[in-house]
Amino acid sequence: MAKNSKTISKPAAGKPKAATKRTAKNKPAAKLVRAVAKRARTTKVWTADAEILALLPNPDSNATVLDRLFATVTARRMADPELSHSARLLSRGTAKVAQKFGEEAVECLIEAVAGNRDALISESADVLYHLVVMWVDAGVSPDQVWSELQRREGISGIAEKAARALAGSVTRPERSKP
Length: 178
Ligand SMILES: N=c1c2ncn([C@@H]3O[C@H](COP(=O)(O)OP(=O)(O)OP(=O)(O)O)[C@@H](O)[C@H]3O)c2ncn1[C@@H]1O[C@H](COP(=O)(O)O)[C@@H](O)[C@H]1O
Description:
By secondary structure, this protein is mainly alpha-helical. It folds into two domains: 1-58, no CATH class; 62-150, MazG-like (Helix Hairpins, Orthogonal Bundle). The protein contains nine helices and no strands. It has helices at 2-9, 17-43, 50-53, 64-76, 85-91, 94-114, 117-138, 142-152, 157-171. Helix 4 packs across helix 7 and helix 6 runs antiparallel to helix 7. The protein is globular. It starts with a helix and ends in a 7-residue tail after the last helix. The structure holds phosphoribosyl ATP. Phosphoribosyl ATP is lined by residues 69, 72-73, 76, 84-87, 126, 129.
């Protein structure tokens, strides 16, 4: 802690330390955006492949803010519903929790369609909060969701859908026509 405050209060000569840090942190993200834009222009195909993921600052990092939010909401389960929005929502039951998630998702898509970027960011945060509340209510942990996302990495959605259709046609024989 003391070490950090020293770093902030005494930046190195020339550029302030914080500004240098921020630029360095943003660089891979800007590079990623350029790479994705170029790929989209030249191939018109989206590929979340290793080449693009390698440009991320930390390809193994997960959404730690969501992990912290999950821990907070879990801890709020037993809190006073007068003091905690999460406690109030969870006390109203699964149907209400799910309904709130749905409402927030709809608000989010309305902003997306309207092209309101700032409102979309705000509504996205609402959606994620209500998704986390839904996970807590259902007893699903973020790790389980991260694992499922990791399992899907590198598997094209088109290929996966085709494989699913194939598996369905093998396991579910066509219904006999009347
Ligand atoms: N991220 C959020 C968050 N996002 C949105 N909201 C709340 O979600 C509510 C949504 O408002 P609505 O009017 O749509 O919902 P509502 O009041 O239930 O209305 P009804 O549909 O019931 O009529 C607002 O009160 C927002 O403040 C959030 N409440 C809490 N968090 C996080 O959860 C943590 C714990 O919060 P508490 O549980 O309140 O302590 C906080 O520290 C935050 O990190």
